[in-house]
Amino acid sequence: MPENSCWWAxxxxxxxxxxxxxxxxxxGIEVFLPLYESNRxxxxxNKLVSLPLFPCYLFVRGGHDRRLPVVSTPGVHMVLxxxxxxxxxPEAEIQAIRRTVEAAVHVEPHAFLKCGERVRVxxxxxxxxxxxxxxxxxxxxxxxxxxxLAKSVGVEIDAADVEPAMQQTAEEDSAGRQxxxxxxxxxxxxxxxxxxx
Length: 197
Prior knowledge:
six-stranded antiparallel sheet, 15 strands
């Protein structure tokens, strides 16, 4: 993958994600800050607010020449690295998150998971997205994880709209389409249940 098309994760000060995203965009840097809607309650009112799906993180695309303008931005703590190199986030993970936040589905942060049955959505706005299927409060939820951040998001989904990820139809094989993958997941471990933090 060309260096300029790589996504990397930026760690920000608490509750500074939106401000940092605006400043980086103002510098001409491509930024992706996935948000979700949450109903917050105060003494006198309820309010629907947009919050970051991955608190204290946002994603930027670019080459190494963009690193200094990113880390010198007020509110940025650091760019995540793997040794001395900038740690990149796979394009498939970014696209799966982007499709999820753009779809008309309920999404929220979720405890990071590495167990459960890996499934692929076979219908609806998230068709082709892969993740882990869990059950919570009698609802099915698709959990998408960014392994590098050890963070996950959960999306409410109809269990009838998913199939095991390893199963491909003859139509997909002949079309040569690759499903969107979201993270590297362990083998199926029956009885894996998620709890919300």
